[in-house]
């Protein structure tokens, strides 16, 4: 069902969380406060409480927030406060931005892109470097 939402909705924010952790449930409750603001920007928000869903997208730490723009994921890497996430959604929707993906997400993008697509990819661990990747 999540895949169907990602495929059908141009702008989708998914909050991945572990339903067995009280802190995650509380965080989801707080993030629901920004749902109306996202809706005004025509951004849909959904919750994904399956650990399997998070692993499918290469998310190793939950909770996590991912913005899917026409199916292309971008992992939020800031503080999970309503104001910060709301600001990130607004910037993502209205401006140019770098996209942060996991290795699994990059593989999905490669599989779904046509053979003429080319992206500039930055790999980050301790040292930042980049290379062009033909998808």
Structure in a nutshell:
The chain is an alpha+beta fold and 135 residues long.
Sum up the structure in keywords.
globular, two-stranded antiparallel ribbon, 6 strands, disordered C terminus, alpha+beta, Glutaredoxin, 39% helix, 4-stranded mixed β-sheet, 135 residues, single chain
Give a description of the structure.
By secondary structure, the protein is α+β, with helices and mostly antiparallel strands. The chain has a single domain (2-97), classed as Glutaredoxin. 39% of the residues lie in helices and 26% in strands. It has six helices and six strands; from the N terminus they run αβααβαββααββ. The chain has a four-stranded mixed sheet with strand order 2-1-3-4, sandwiched between helices. A hairpin with a 3-residue loop joins β5 and β6 (128-134). The longest helix is centred in the middle third of the chain and has 13 residues, at 82-94. The relative contact order is 0.16. The model is unreliable at 126-135 (pLDDT under 50).
Structural class: alpha+beta
Count up the helices: 6
What global shape is seen?
globular
| CATH homologous superfamily placement | Glutaredoxin
The number of distinct β-strands equals 6
Mean pLDDT: 80
- Regions with little confidence, pLDDT below 50 for 5+ residues: 126-135
């Amino acid at each position: 069902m999540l895949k169907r939402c990602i495929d059908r909705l141009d702008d989708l924010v998914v909050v991945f969380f572990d339903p067995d952790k009280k802190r995650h449930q509380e965080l989801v409750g707080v993030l629901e406060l920004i749902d109306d603001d996202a809706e005004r920007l025509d951004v849909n928000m959904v919750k994904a409480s399956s650990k399997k869903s998070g692993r499918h997208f290469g998310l190793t730490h939950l909770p996590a927030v991912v913005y899917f723009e026409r199916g292309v994921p971008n992992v939020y890497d800031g503080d999970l406060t309503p104001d910060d996430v709301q600001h990130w959604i607004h910037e993502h929707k209205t401006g140019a931005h770098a996209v942060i993906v996991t290795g699994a997400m990059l593989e999905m993008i490669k599989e779904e892109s046509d053979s003429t697509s080319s992206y500039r990819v930055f790999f980050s661990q301790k040292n930042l470097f980049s290379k062009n990747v033909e998808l």
